[in-house]
Design goal:
Strand content: 15-25%
Oligomer: single chain
Largest sheet: 5 strands, antiparallel
Number of helices: 11
CATH class of the largest domain: Alpha Beta
Order of helices and strands: HEEEHEEHHHHEEEEHHHHH
Number of domains: 2
Shape: globular
Strand order of the largest sheet: 1-2-3-5-4
Number of strands: 9
Structural class: alpha+beta
CATH superfamily of the largest domain: Aminoglycoside phosphotransferase (APH), C-terminal lobe
Radius of gyration: 20 Å
Amino acid sequence: MDDARRNALAAWLSAQSQAEIVITRMALMSGGAIQQNWALDVTRNGQAEAWVLRTDSQATLTQSRPRGEEFALLRAAFQAGVTVPEPLLLCEDPTVIGAAFFVMRRITGVAAAHLVVRSETLGGGREQAVARLGQELARIHAITTPLPFLTPHPATPPMLRFVAEMRTHLDAAARRRPVLEWGLRWLERRAPAAGQIVLCHNDFRTGNLMLTDHGVAGVLDWEFAAFGDRHEDLGWFCARCWRFGSPHEAGGIGSRAAFIAAYEAQAGVRIDPSQIALWEVAATIRWAVIALSQAQRHLSGAEHNLEAALTGHIVPDLEADILQATT
């Protein structure tokens, strides 16, 4: 970020905070394939504080919510007692730094998936970690704060809505993916009836969950949240594609049994394992569609991004997982 935008940012932060904000350090953080996260070291009236500024990358996915909506979701989660970074300020004026952004407190811990799945101590140990994550997910599903930009779609079973959305994305793609189409038809024929609709995080997975040796430090990246079936979040977390090579079924961290038991105890509901299995297949299809979209960001010339380009190469492995689960 150049000096002009940095100065404009400091002036805006000062005005909104009604305090003298001085940016002492600003650095682009790792991760954030779809959004950019900047570490901000600031002083507020001379007192040091650690913040994060979250803003758009050059190109985003159509499924990703704008920063104003993500800020509202983060605030609702914070107020409901979910362990998330405290949201501080929202700016929807693109003239300040070139795009909308929000600022939240910076939390510390480990989120990098390749480190999390190999650790025996993060979260207090594998079984304690997944139990705490099950509790966090149940708290998310209990959020009832009015969020007018979200549509519950009560008339359509969530699985059938998912199938229709994925077909729309595949129909618009340049190349046909018959395995993904097969998986969608397999799900369509087994789609459960609509049950209780809850607020789903929709990206609750290893890599978006920050842990310390003592527990959960924060649930990150709320840009895909929407109303849906609670089993969708459970299946996303347990899907093989988000285990990062680990044999542990709950996010590559711990056992599925400990994760589900803690979720059930916190939520006060019983979970249907067969529905989780369906949503694990759906998770694999969804990640394949996102991977194709990521690759297209690079191939279209919209953004020269090696990580996005390479993401497309995982699709055949995901298709193999789909065939294994459905045949």
